[in-house]
Fold this sequence. Notes:
Elements: H1 11-55
Amino acid sequence: MVNGQGDFFSGANGQRLLFFKIDLLSQKIIKMREAVNEAKASLASQQSRSFAVDIH
Length: 56
């Protein structure tokens, strides 16, 4: 293991692991964005309902 294979990110395995971690991170970010968008949409619909109630 002295010939560089002991290094965590050396070789194909390390690169694969690194890409896997980046992929997981991007999936988390996408899910967070979706959750934020859903929260904004529900908030907007609640606000429009309350405005409609205020008008009547």
